[in-house]
Amino acid sequence: MTENALILNFFKLYNMLWNLSLPFLARNNRLKQGWQKRISSGHHSRADIWIQAASAGEAYLAVHILKTLLPKTPLNVLVTTTTSQGMDILKKGLTREMRHHRINLTIEWFPFDRPHTIEKAVKTINPCIMVLLETEIWPALLYFLKRNQTKIFIINARLSRKSHLLYLKTKWLWKHLEPDVILATSRQDAKRYAQLFEKKIVKTMSNIKFESMDTMVPDSRLLLDIKRVLPQTLPLTLLASVRRQEEKEVLLMAKELLNAFPDQVIAIFPRHMHRINAWKKKLTAQKFNFHLKSNIPPHLDKPGIILWDTFGELKTAYALASVVFVGGSLKPLGGQNFIEPALQGATTVIGPHYDDFAWVTDDIFKKRIVIKKTHWTAVVQTILTALETPENRSDRKQVAQDYIIRHQGGTRQACDEILKAFDEFI
Predict the structure, then answer these.
(1) Do residue 94 and residue 107 come from a single domain?
(2) Number of structural domains, the chain?
(3) Structural domain of residue 393, as residue ranges?
(4) What would the pLDDT profile of 25-68 be if each residue is shown by its tens digit?
(5) Are 13 and 115 in contact (CB under 8 A)?
(6) CA–CA dist 10, 115 (Å, integer)
(7) Predicted confidence band of residue 128 (pLDDT cuts 50, 70, 90)
(8) Mean pLDDT of 358-370
(9) What is the pTM for the complete model shown?
(10) Do residue 170 and residue 300 come from a single domain?
(11) What is the number of helices (H) and of strands (E) in the chain?
(12) What DSSP line would sit under 251-305, residue for residue?
């Protein structure tokens, strides 16, 4: 790895900024758990492979990788995470499994990327392989791993448009810190990584998230509870994962849908629960007759709007919906998971923006598993068509599940790459 005065001066400044930031970070409630381990390295021990799974999504990916990884010889594996959610997922998903995979597993908090801390951590752990999941690009970590001659992978790699533009502004730094292999989940993500690092190190893979999607089963007890509050003879339309920036358009959608097809129930699911009060004000100002889901006594017996104010029920409600619009897609917000309702057989519609889900491939739209429209008015027309001439739910569900199965295999590809690289160290 080439070192120059510019890089060395950058890390001096970077270390200084971390030192100034630590007193403020110490006050953050989300960082209090595991604080001492985040700022130190003495608790670490030698590991052959180090996997960093930042939060919940990446933790699930790590679980799939480690359950699929079958080394020929026993391995010491360290998995780190940044959040309490990630820690819970790793501990529940992995602790009991690894003895059958010849893996001696340690789960720890990821240290802050303060050069002073990371240098000691890398020296102590001394991994042969470092696996970073999705978009974990930390300058000090990459720098000291490269000095340690650790082989670095970014697996299930994705890079949003916003992050890509920010990283390009500091390309002078990243060209000195490039990983050895990047397995990107879409051609778009591969192109973005290739602009940041060397093109030759970038490959594509199927998203590991495909591995778990065909096994999603609604919570039967919750499903029954939701059924009890809904009219059994009326279609249910979900306006799901609605983001703040698109609330105006979704409000207009609800008005148009009820005017054109009054005999339905429309359930509005804000993406964030703290927007419930804002939605109450908006619906009241438009003189909508609506119900909070938590206040329906004991069930709804006529058409109308439900503002869903109870957390964690969206995925289960998909199984009852005739049509689902998935938000985060009317404005350039990255999109939300539109595969989940499609797998439940609901007619699923999104707007034009889905940057965070570029990995789904165009097949999902060509086969109309998910229907993409360019404007909220076109979304409304699509929903109305689906309500007036409903398709067979079982058929839609089967087509979606077939699509998922065809795109699986990313976990196996990633594991093969890791083990192949590890064999070179033996």
Answers:
(1) yes
(2) 2
(3) 220-406
(4) 999 998 999 999 999 988 999 999 999 999 999 999 999 999 99
(5) no
(6) 11
(7) very high
(8) 93
(9) 0.85
(10) no
(11) 20, 14
(12) HHHHHHHHHH--SSEEEEEESSGGGHHHHHHHHHHTT--EEEGGG--S---S-EE
